[in-house]
Amino acid sequence: MKEYLEIGKIVTTHGVQGEVKVQPWCDEAAFLAGLSEVGVGAPDRPMSVQRGRVQKNMAILKLEGVDTVSAAALLRERILYLHRDKIPLAEGEYFIQDLIGLPVYDADTGALYGTLCDVSKTGANDVWHIRFPDGAERLIPKIPQVVLRVDVAGGRVEIRPLRGLFE
Predict the structure, then answer these.
(1) Predicted pLDDT of residue 166
(2) pTM for the full model?
């Protein structure tokens, strides 16, 4: 498991005081807006967050030492990192980054379908991308009727595909 998680990406500048607009790669932009420190561009490059707020599902952050539009522009496309220990998870929750690469099995037969290779956020529910051994990528909805068990520590996902899902 990764020690530091990618939590968002700086997409552009905001205003004239050196603020940056961040696309969240977590559940809510408010989480990013409430942080006091983030790794910018690399986990070992921490920067203090002086203030943060949410605007249209994006986080607007004012980073310490970034006081002009031109200084903020130099940070465009940089990934933000946070140590996993600073992110509280409730029981049964997990990080998407920990799911990527897990083998996906049939819950009833134990047959291996493939490997979880991506997760798309669609609004109603996430969509999981499974890469089959033949290279084909198939999609499943992340709903309780399909995804029956996620065991990150044991390195395993078990599903029961809806009739016709993989045909």
Answers:
(1) 78
(2) 0.76
